[in-house]
Amino acid sequence: MILLTLSVAAVLLALISLRDRHALSKSNLALRLGASVLLVLGGLFSLENLYLLGKLLGRLAMPTGLVWLLLWALIFKAFWENQRKAVFVFSGILVAYTLAGNVWLGGVLTGTLEAEWMDVVAQKHEPFEAVLVLGGGATGDAEYAQVNDAGDRVVLGARLYHRGLTPVLVTSGSSIPGLGSYVDVSEATTAIWTELAVPESAIVRMPEPKNTREEIAGIKELMKEKGWTRVGLVTSAWHMRRAMKLAKDQDVKLHPLPADFRTRTGWDGILSIVPDAHGFINVQRACWEYLGAATGR
């Protein structure tokens, strides 16, 4: 509350100073603007936990933070030179940039995708005949396989097997030609599972699919071939809604087993205002899922 009060006072002082800049000497104007900065810093130092100051300065020193500061500088420069059109343009860009990289907004958007699955606990299901783990959780090859930021999918698959909830794990997917080096995700996932004591005899690979729609089509054919009627679907919670819709569209009955939850709705004060790489990632991820759902991909 102290920080918020001092920050508001600092903004008001800065705006009043800029409004009256023609009536003030440069030294007085500089003193007022300097006082605005000191008010904010004073609020930060008044906090019991000074780690916040280090976090804030660190975030501002990153490329995303530097661009944000540059936009503020351009706004003040345009305001100083009475370029109203430029002020509105740069302000619009600043707002859009701040929202696109906002960690809190990214958490809220991700939460709208994950809300339906928050109470689903994969390990409490009845046993399945097989579990399909969608690609996207591993990279590399058989020798240098590793999980990525969606690697909880791969881990959950192994956990379900070792809990006796499925005798078969199905791994699918490979990279799209032309997008970097070719990666057989099913091969990388298989390598990780075998190192986690899942026997190769319990693993079925489907390397052909390049997107979620093709993965659903692949498991549909496999279910017909094997005679499976109870199959679980493991994917990231934020991706589950689209995956289940694609399964419904193709008349495939799968049971959702969400992993890799990303919902984060906490407000971190001033840190939540400064754009951050994680904010950009989560906002873009949510927008991508909504776009995919709208286009049926």
Layout of helices and strands, plus pairs?
Elements: H1 2-19, H2 26-45, H3 51-61, H4 63-80, H5 84-100, H6 103-114, E1 130-133, E2 138-139, E3 146-147, H7 152-162, E4 169-172, H8 185-195, E5 203-206, H9 212-226, E6 231-236, H10 237-249, E7 255-259, H11 277-295
Protein name: YdcF family protein
Transmembrane segments: 29-53, 60-80, 86-109
GO cellular component, one term: plasma membrane
What features would you describe in this structure?
InterPro entries: Cell_Envelope_Assoc, DUF218, Rossmann-like_a/b/a_fold. With 297 residues, the chain is α/β, with parallel strands linked by helices. It contains 11 helices and 7 strands. It has helices at 2-19, 26-45, 51-61, 63-80, 84-100, 103-114, 152-162, 185-195, 212-226, 237-249, 277-295, and strands spanning 130-133, 138-139, 146-147, 169-172, 203-206, 231-236, 255-259. Strands 5-4-1-6-7 form a 5-stranded parallel sheet, with helices on both faces. It has a two-stranded antiparallel sheet with strand order 2-3. Helix 6 (103-114) runs parallel beside helix 11.
